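Interim report to the steering committee. The following record documents the input for Response regulator (222 residues).
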Amino acid sequence: MEGQRTEAIRVMIVEDDPDWRRGLVAYLQSEADIEVVASTDEPDAALALAAEAEPDVILLDIMMADNPAGLKLAGELPAATGARVIMLTSMEDREFVVEAFRAGAVNYLVKSDFTAIPQAVRQAAADRSAIDSAAAQLMLQEFRRLKAVEQEYETDKFKRLVTPAEVQLLSMIHDGYSQSQIAEKSFLSLRTVKNHVNNILRKIGAKSSKDAAQQAKDKGLF
């Protein structure tokens, strides 16, 4: 079939647990279409070894000697070798998942799910982003969490900048009242209303009174 690989997928393993590394090498070597061409427990030697071995896929432990050196290598190895990096970890840490993908990994697997590794290697070698559903879900959850934190921060900032009286004014603007109508209903001079509006725009950096009113509405102030 056109485009099908005819050579074994070349794999390199960067893992500092000697027993787990030997077991993974033996497990992958039992696959007819996968060849382990290099392995190391030294993150400092990984770049040079990868350049020499020319792997298609690198299995990289995210924690090397209890230090997340794997995150740094996840960015360096693809740039230096063109290999696809799959991060391996013994614990499913959401922060590390996000950082691994930001660094350049194409997949993230928990070591206990070792039976999924051969297929992940094949997908990565085929140049398909092999993010499994669990990792993808973690990424989505983290994105939503960060977005919620950002929105909460922006809302709190907005509330600190705008007084309750100014919020009421913005609510009236959002409801379609003109500045003249607001002045009449609030028993204020038109000049005072204009000053209030200009003060609000200055404080929150809005382009117009309608923009400021919409921001207040979006943040749930009324």
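The mean pLDDT is 82. The committee is asked to note this result when reviewing the revised timeline.
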